[in-house]
Structure formats: structure tokens, C-alpha cells
Amino acid sequence: xxxxxxxxxxxxxxxxxxxxxxxxxxxxxxxxxxxxxxxxxxxxxxxxxxxxxxxxxxxxxxxxxxxxxxxxxxxxxxxxxxxxxxxxxxxxxxxxxxxxxxxxxxx
Length: 107
Prior knowledge:
Elements (H helix, E strand, L loop, with lengths): L4 E6 L9 E6 L3 H5 L4 E8 L8 E4 L9 E4 L4 E4 L5 E5 L2 H14 L3
Antiparallel strand pairs: 1-2, 1-7, 2-3, 3-5, 3-6, 4-5
């Protein structure tokens, strides 16, 4: 499991219209490699707009359709749920994510 990887996770939540959603691992690698049971992730949505905290991704990253990573919607997900690997982001795309996270967190 690495920072920048995408995983499809069963959510089954009444707050999310989809049973499954893809998430990007956003935690730093040191945390991922540690004994912590969860990691910080950003959800991927197929409906998105032109927002500076949304990073567009598509088939190049393993998605079935054009989508966007929502860096304003970070959440903690147990590592045990991250089993259905979808793909990973390039170094350039991760730089875009890093910039979006800085905006989202105002740092």
C-alpha cells in the first residue's frame, strides 16, 4: 500500500449514494508503513466541477471514466478495507494533489 494509490471500497453508507467508491491514499508513507490501522484518503467522484481542490483523473490512472479526486473531503479509512486496487497516480499528478491539499487545508 502506497501514497498515491487508488482503491475501490465498499461503503454501504446512507450518506453516499454509491455502495462502492474509489479513494486515493493521501497519508504520508511513514504513516501507511506504521502500525496505525487507518489512513487518510480522498474520495473520487465522477461528477465534478472546475474547483482548485478537485484533481481530474481518468483511464490513465485506472478509472473507467473521467473523474476527480475531492481533496476537500478527506476521511480516515481502515487499511483493512483497502484491498481492491484500481491504479496509481504519476508523480506529476501527485504534485497536483499536493497543491490541492495545501489549498484545502489552507497551508
